[in-house]
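pinned: reference chain
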Amino acid sequence: MAGAALDSFSPATRSWFAGAFRTPTPAQEGAWRAIGEGSDVLVVAPTGSGKTLAAFLAALDRLASTPPPAEPKKRCRVLYVSPLKALAVDVERNLRSPLTGIRQESARLGLPEPDIRVGIRSGDTPPAERRALATRPPDILITTPESLFLMLTSASREALTGIETVILDEVHAVAGTKRGAHLALSLERLDELLPRPATRIGLSATVRPVEEVARYLAPRGRVEIVQPPSDKEFDLSVVVPVDDMGELGGSPATEGREGGDKPSIWPHVEERIVDLVQAHRSTIVFANSRRLAERLCNRLNEIAYER
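pinned: its structure tokens
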């Protein structure tokens, strides 16, 4: 099945994927099949299911295997829209691996090395870079709904006239909101600029009703919904850092703590948190207030230093 899912890609893309991953995820298999059939696609899957690559790999393969348009202003063929600027930056960073890998595999196979450029247009983009994006657009443009609207209502819209694929991330976060209605209008304005409407690929976390989100993604077209079954598994532990919370005698009370000289559970909690932090790559600690969070952070640093 994995081989069949990759059959439509070029040799360089297939070779890179086979070296980087064991097998496509169900979300990727379904998305690539639907994209190959030419329909708009809504991929509904949880985090970690490879949704971003499911949306991008077919577009990257097309960019790598076909020469760019002769007209520079029509070079931008893939538009990625994210409701979060931080997410847009993450996607730009995550695209470096497949882009580098496909280029290296093309060289190894004796194929022309693709030159695929990625650009970001957001409210933080300096004016000089905005002008450069308008006159010399990248192959892939990463933007936000608001920045897309600004481009469509200015001379920069000429840089969007070559768009073939639109990827909408976190569709569930905007569908049914005023911001989503504004984005839907921008997408319709974009289609009016193009020789034919762009293929729309939506990425969403698990959401209900999924048909409504699909209708939002492409109200006039046929949308293939790719929603592989997924089961949530929780690994939950309730940890008490002392044997008996009613007997805290002998615990090292910290001077200046609330409660005076009374034994406190906090030293045990702090030591246990440091244990967990040092045993994992990422740890989130929730506190009731900013003051408590700051005090806890200072104490964790002290314990780590002492160790």
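why pinned: The first helix runs from residue 2 to 6. Residues 237-307 form one domain.
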